[in-house]
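Fill in residues.
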């Protein structure tokens, strides 16, 4: 395997050898099987090493114009597998900061190659990791009260992610996942601005961390986000998969909702409904699905469509009451469920 990998890395001829695709496939299978073995044993460090070897192979293939010899989707799948290991390593409970640092250094040490040869999946991998690290660490820290230093680290993750995701657009203007991730990140930032942190004074997040917002994200991002998603709908409106198009409609709707533009929000929420009035979308969690129904119900209410609004909002109430009961449970559980 090392000999084959070395041959691919060193290849400089102008004609692709007939065996190149077969060699890359064998190397890929070897590392993927080892990664799966380590994952079965819950050995994230071993699995991370195999995914890194795969990404090095793919970078070498791009550098030597052998990209057509890589199976479609493999590079992105392995990038995201490595990112999931990194995010587990970043967890407060049972994480491995040393492993996280090693994965971040791996990305940093190869990003120039990825940019030179426009390997959008690799660039996205680092941007996705940085954005998710910012979100994960913000959510973890805010439970005990976010400090200025913690907020600054989160914003540093977001700023670096923004750079990587914009590089993805430069490398491949039709890289849909980059648009989705950047939009989620912008929405997260703007939603957190308006959270009340000090109940006594009523100060919001944007006021408590005013200097940090001025340094990193001085302007609201909702309208910028809408322009971003409108661009993606223009790009993918006719040729994109239903999953991608519905994801863009959903995110545009969420941003219009937060801007109190309910007529536009309703239009884009309704765009993802099937013939029975149910969302044609694979939500990541039951909570995300309930948030869709809640937002859509409120949008219909503010648009004067009270009967339809009542049906959606009643569905949310019944679902959440059964999933997260408040009455008849201990006080601490009530607080969490609320």
């Amino acid at each position: 395997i090392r000999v084959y990998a070395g041959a691919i890395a060193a290849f400089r001829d102008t004609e692709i050898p007939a065996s190149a695709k077969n060699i890359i496939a064998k190397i890929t299978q070897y590392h993927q099987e080892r990664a799966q073995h380590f994952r079965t044993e819950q050995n994230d460090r071993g699995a991370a090493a195999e995914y890194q070897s795969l990404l090095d192979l793919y970078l070498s293939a791009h550098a030597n114009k052998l990209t057509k010899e890589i199976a479609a989707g493999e590079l992105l799948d392995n990038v995201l597998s490595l990112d999931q290991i990194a995010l587990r390593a970043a967890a407060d409970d049972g994480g491995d900061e040393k492993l996280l640092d090693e994965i971040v250094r791996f990305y940093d040490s190869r990003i120039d190659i990825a940019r030179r040869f426009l390997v959008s999946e690799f660039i996205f991998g680092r941007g996705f990791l940085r954005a998710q690290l910012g979100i994960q660490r913000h959510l973890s820290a805010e439970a005990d009260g976010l400090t200025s230093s913690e907020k600054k680290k989160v914003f540093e993750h977001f700023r670096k992610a923004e750079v990587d995701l914009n590089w993805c657009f430069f490398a491949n203007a039709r890289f849909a996942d980059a648009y989705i991730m950047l939009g989620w990140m912008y929405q997260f930032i703007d939603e957190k601005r308006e959270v009340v942190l000090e109940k006594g004074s009523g100060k919001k997040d944007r006021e408590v961390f005013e200097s940090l917002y001025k340094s990193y994200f001085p302007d609201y991002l909702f309208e910028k986000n809408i322009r971003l998603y409108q661009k993606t709908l223009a790009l993918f409106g006719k040729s994109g998969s239903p999953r991608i198009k519905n994801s863009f409609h959903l995110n545009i709707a969420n941003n219009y909702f937060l801007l109190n533009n309910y007529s536009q929000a309703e239009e884009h929420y309704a765009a993802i409904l099937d013939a029975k009035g149910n969302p044609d979308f694979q939500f990541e969690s039951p909570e995300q699905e309930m948030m869709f129904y809640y937002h859509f119900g409120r949008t219909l209410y503010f648009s004067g469509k009270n009967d339809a609004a009542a049906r959606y909002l009643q569905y949310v109430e019944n679902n959440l009451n059964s999933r997260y009961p408040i009455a008849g449970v201990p006080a601490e559980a009530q607080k969490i469920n609320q």
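The first helix runs from residue 2 to 10.
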